[in-house]
Design brief:
Blueprint (H helix, E strand, L loop, with lengths): L1 E5 L6 H10 L3 E6 L2 H9 L10 H12 L3 E5 L6 H11 L3 E4 L6 H4 L3 H24 L5 E7 L16 E7 L5 E7 L7 H20 L3 E6 L1 E3 L25 H11 L3 E4 L5 E6 H13 L9 E5 L2 E4 H12 L3 E4 L16 H5 L7 H14 L18 H9 L2
Parallel strand pairs: 1-2, 1-4, 2-3, 4-5, 5-8, 8-12, 9-11, 10-14
Antiparallel strand pairs: 6-7, 11-13
The protein binds uridine-5'-diphosphate-glucose (UPG).
């Protein structure tokens, strides 16, 4: 297949591009390099030393003999340029990662909220709009988030995207229907992914676009089979308070002797997936597109659920790190249970990597190896969800 990977320079985009190229697909990365600009804005850098995208693709060619082409295109801002690219290349599939993906970054200030909404919603809408305008029947695979569901399960497992409901009519009969699982975002970033869902629902219904939405859990780990092949193919690893995700943050904190930053009681239960499984799932989704006219296909792209404090205790036991119980800068339930259905990918043959098998190598091979690159002042999470929380977090001893 000819595949356009929008956002192919990012944390999941880069290993996905390599994985698909390795499988023999013709891969084109379209990226505006915004993630690199945001590093500059925040004064942070990836724990792992990353080369330019051009250098990365050069090394990939040298190692694999395969070509990945890079196109500097801003999908959210340059609709006409993007559409012209699609018209010229007419890919068979599009994998869409081209969105601002950090919840704390999206909550930093009014400017960051505006940026996240306009960037993410426009990027998604531009893709859909262009597919219709060009009569292009490419399968669109979008990286969504488990965060669209919220994390307040009511004792029932979260299904894959749709909820069967019974509605009582005025005549007293019960009509059965499947609806999109009610959206319940916990940040501006997560809210944009909820808006994406409505755009997908409309375009699948109105124009017959073939769309798969992957509701992904929190990714942990760094490398995949392909990024491990050469030091210059290494994936990025974010540890800072805005972009670092919880388990990767705990791993690097342990490696530098920084107390593990648990928000609140750590009773938040979340869904997780290893980066290697994440790229496998995207390949599986590409192989199994919905039919034209079918509704949006949704997979829950996660393999395990864990409570934040259990993860902290696990990492502490493994490494001897201390745990710091901090006031929570986010507005979220302090404790929740979470049960998620993920039969879609298991049925397609996914054999998940579990935390138990992969965690230790991640600490030793990545976190300790690059610990010298950490700026400790960038570790704390400082983005508060509301003005009131900002005051509480500031005044807490
Ligand atoms: N948390 C801590 N301590 C930390 C960092 C986070 O206790 O140092 C908590 C946080 O309060 C939350 C949970 O850990 O309850 C998860 O936070 P995080 O790992 O930052 O995940 P999300 O904010 O849910 O976002 C990540 C990705 C996002 C993706 C989502 C998938 O950034 O792109 O959509 O995971 O679920």
């Amino acid at each position: 297949m000819k595949i356009a990977v929008l956002g192919g320079d990012g944390f999941v985009g880069w290993p996905t591009s390599l994985h698909l190229s390795d499988r023999g697909h013709e891969v084109h990365i379209l990226d505006n390099l915004s993630r690199r600009w945001i590093d500059t804005e925040l004064g942070v850098q990836s724990l792992t030393p990353m080369d330019s995208i051009q250098e990365r693709t050069r090394i990939w060619k040298q190692e694999s003999g395969r070509t990945i082409r890079f196109h500097l295109i801003d999908v959210a801002r340059d609709y006409e340029v993007f559409k012209a690219w699609l018209a010229e290349h007419r890919p068979d599939a599009i994998v869409h990662f081209a969105e601002q993906r950090a919840a704390p970054y999206s909550m930093k200030s009014a400017r960051h909220k505006n940026y996240t909404v306009s960037n993410n919603v426009n990027a998604t809408h531009h893709v859909l709009n262009a597919l219709v305008e060009l009569d292009l029947d490419a399968h669109l695979v979008h990286l969504g988030t488990m965060g669209v569901y919220g994390y307040s399960t009511v004792g029932a497992a979260i299904p894959e995207g749709y909820l069967p409901v019974g509605i009582e009519t005025m005549a007293g009969e019960t009509v059965r229907q499947e609806i999109l699982y009610p959206a319940n975002p916990g940040s501006i970033y997560h809210m944009t992914k909820c808006l994406d869902q409505l755009l997908f629902q409309f375009y699948a219904k109105n124009d017959g676009l073939r769309i798969t939405d992957l509701h992904q859990g929190i990714v942990w780990g760094t490398n995949t089979d392909q990024t491990s092949r050469h030091v210059q193919l290494i994936n990025r690893f974010d540890y800072d308070g805005d972009y670092g995700t919880v388990l990767n943050r705990f791993l690097i904190q342990a490696a530098i002797g920084y107390p593990l930053t648990v928000h609140g009681t750590g009773g938040q239960t979340r869904a997780f997936i290893h980066i290697q499984d994440s790229v496998r799932c995207i390949e599986l989704a590409l192989k199994s597109p919905p039919q034209r006219g079918e509704r949006v296909k949704v997979f829950n792209q996660m393999t395990e659920t864990h409570r934040v404090r259990d993860l902290a205790e696990l990492v502490a036991k493994m490494t001897g790190a201390k745990i710091a119980w901090l006031p929570n800068p986010r507005k979220e339930a302090p404790e929740n249970d979470l049960v998620v259905t993920n039969d879609g990918f298991l049925d397609l043959g996914l054999e998940p990597i579990t935390l138990a098998e992969g965690l230790l190598s991640e600490v030793v091979d990545v976190a300790r190896k690059y610990a010298y690159r950490v700026d400790r002042s960038r570790v704390p999470a400082v983005s508060a969800w509301t003005k009131e929380i900002a005051k509480e977090v500031e005044t807490d001893p």
